[in-house]
User: Fold these one by one.
Assistant:
Number 1:
Amino acid sequence: MPSVLPDGDPAPADGALPASVLDGAGERAFGVYLHVPYCRVRCGYCDFNTYTASELGGGASQAGYAAEAAAELSFGAGVMRAAGLPEREVSTVFFGGGTPTLLPASDLAMMLGRIRDEWGIAPGAEVTTEANPDSVDEAYLETLADAGFTRVSFGMQSAVPHVLRTLDRTHSPERVPVVVAAARAAGLQVSLDLIYGTPGESIEDWSRSLDAALENAPDHLSAYALIVEAGTKLAGQIRRGEVAQPDDDVHAEMYEMLDARLAAAGYEWYEISNWSRTPETRSRHNLSYWTGEDWWGAGPGAHSHIGGLRWWNVKHPRAYADRMSQGLSPAHARELLTDEARYSERVLLETRIADGFAIDALSEQSRDAIPGLIADGLIDGRAALGAGGSERRIVPTLRGRLLADTVVGQLLR
């Protein structure tokens, strides 16, 4: 089952925001995330807040979800206006899940239309939905493009049948190039998601998946090491000895292969787990998370952040539907980040990206760690020293990406 929501301060029923969120708001971009918490099958490794039809129970349904999410979007726009936040058009939208494309394409178009009605969508905005390869067809993708979507992120995960079976994925490898071609024909950019380190996946299997992904020439690619989350089906299988525990050394070997193969194919890494063909095809929505921009997260369990205030919605679709039917905030709890917490998060997140963290923004104590990080080959020495007159920045090396926790730990000790 999905992981438990964190504790926090009580969230007001009217969603009112404190005056502090106004500080610097005009300088921050604003995005919207919509969580669609439905899946046809629960993947054995997943602990996201998702539900199959048999897990929903009464009081919630896929059919009514789009109207509920649209109601939260209108509620959110009202809350932001009441707080006195400046009018900002939405620069990025991301539909995640779950599998957003289990809903009719008209539902996704309607929710996007509500965003357009409430906030406006900026010219050139990035609008993405996640999709399983077996959850869309040509007509579906054409409807999305006509509605204003610009990107689709397909959960490819692997090109090897036995790996897909271990992950409980429902599509066949042959389906991926079909939907990639359909997305391109509709005028959509394409991102592919991969997972490496699945129990039973060999180096040769991973190489085969990389070959298949690159044959599709995606605009963007994300790749994540499999993490065994407590309470998942996979965790139980490992505990019972049915499958092997993922190996950190194998993960590292697979990551190094991934980075080398993508670089040779003309892709550049811009975040530890993300590569793009050009700077223009980076995921601007995800970058907004890593650089501390503002976003409203709609849907069960969705997280939001505005001006150092973070909150998260009630988790179950039934509880969410009940809140929305009463016109109440769906927030479960919230926290106002302290200056110390915001600094720590900046270091944690901005040292993950190729653009790096400005050394001038580091505390003196953090700067003391820089010589050691350079000596250990964890950060780029030229970037840290401002070679060529550029701004001095903390940028991880390949070794530093593999040991990202070590880099952050040294900077925040």
Note: The radius of gyration is 21 Å.
Number 2:
Amino acid sequence: MKVIGNLLLIAGVVLLAVFGYQLFQHNQSQKESLVEAKERIQNSPKDTDQALRDFKAKYGEAFATLEIPKLGKTLPVVEGTDPDALEKGVGHLSESVYPGQGEQILLSGHRDTVFRKFGEIEIGDRFVLTMPYGSYTYEIRETEIVPEDDTTVIREMGEEVLVVTTCYPFSYIGDAPDRFVTYAYPVK
């Protein structure tokens, strides 16, 4: 009986060590991406109109920051929404446009990493997306919860809308069955 108890204790310590290492590694990747994004913003040409028209990010590149004043967070935005990109920060869906281009901008992130306190977000809260060619403020006007496989969120909207998604429920353990979606519109 003592042997089984010791084995369970060792297994628990190993699992905690693996989890701790993964969390440390993710935090390091996110910090590096934030530095990369801030450098790109700072070192970009200031011809806003030309930069807006010509802007394109490479897959996996941290190119912008997303500030969430309500949560006191500034997060890196990385091109792509696959697991590798989302490990570095908030992912930008490559098929969507960039701020200032007049259509849907879609960002995604994990609820247990970059959007850890996203459950505190409410209608009326703001996002500030800082790009190499300028800063854009959006106000949340609506939210919805959709099943994880609902792709109708990705669509032409006929106007500029920042759509930010994450897994839902926020406190769910494992792969969450739904997605929490915010729709934020430019603040004039």
Note: DSSP finds three helices and eight strands in the chain.
Number 3:
Amino acid sequence: MNTYGTAELARVALSYPAIDNHAHPLLKAEHRAKFAFEGLISEASGDALMRDAVHTLACFRATAQLGQILGIKGELTWEKVKEARDAMDYDRLCKMFLDPTGIQCILIDDGLGGSAEYAEEYRWHDKFTRSKTKRIVRVEVLAEDILREVFDAQLNKDDMNPYRAYVAFVERLYAALDGFAKDPEVVGFKSIACYRTGLDIGMIKEGQQIEQCVTMIMLRYTALRELRLADRHLNDYIVCTTLRIAGECGKPVQFHTGLGDNDINLSLSSPAHMQPIIKAFPETKFVLLHSSYPYTRDAGYLTAVYPNVFLDFGEVFPFISADGQFAVVKQVLELAPTNKIMWSTDGHWWPESYYLGTRQAREALWKVLAESVSKQEMTEAQAIGVVKGALFDNANRIYNLGLAPSWMGE
């Protein structure tokens, strides 16, 4: 057997139907140039994105892989890739990069900033999949929308009352979460507590603390007309309310962990901080997103010791180098049970993000597992089972999707 196993392991790893358990919508054609394309290969911003990100191994590899699909001749450069894609019809561009992925179903978080203004709605993506796209509700954005509606209603009446605002917010938040929990289009929730106050989420029981937070937010909103939830007590309350309702309805709650832009406090982005909240909600399914990179081993530990924790190994494709991706997959497999790992692209804005996120993840799974087979640490049948679970079966079970895998061409 060669380093990369037999043809059957390669065939399954590179083409088995996939459920993308965490992604974001694509931009509308008229907004295709709204965001810098360099965001495809980095979470950085400003000079760190526009000047530095193009000098990473991740960018060099993406350039080669995208240039191959685009049919660019001669020396490949990042600028040539951008010129070639910009010159293409948008529908053709989307089809070119999504058709080869083998993604059967996408679970879309449509709460990413800018989605409502510039991106397609989640159902639009059905044209690229063999099963209907489902929705993930981002709870902090939901809570912000509710607070904004409550405040605006009082402002229109020139009757700002913090207590009534607090009561209205609590009631509407519960009703909205409960409604989404019962909505068959919604298969889970997503929290970005990691970005707002960190993953050391506490149990909030005192209504007075929530009322005080609502009062402070109301004062800021009245003065500035800006609203962004970054108040610990209120953010913790929103997460805990979500966890309780999600646990009752059996829908997972995804958490951004690890890898992100410079808005996060890196030291508070390890899922290790979540141990108390995981224990507090044993009936709720926690999905740790983005491989928790660079805290992958922390995530693997939690996945191994708590039955209600699951690990997504996404976003590192294509954000880190090939060797780094192989190392992350190996770390995921060090301790985490293979029936509890899931894959995602974290695709967003550009169809190329779905393509690279799929191609690179499939290659990493194949090569890492083939190495274990070649060392006789597992059988090829076991490796194939791991691939099928990671790409499709586990997400299908955990999100209660009820799908049957459908190979391309069937």
Note: Residues 49 and 236 are 31 Å apart (CA to CA).
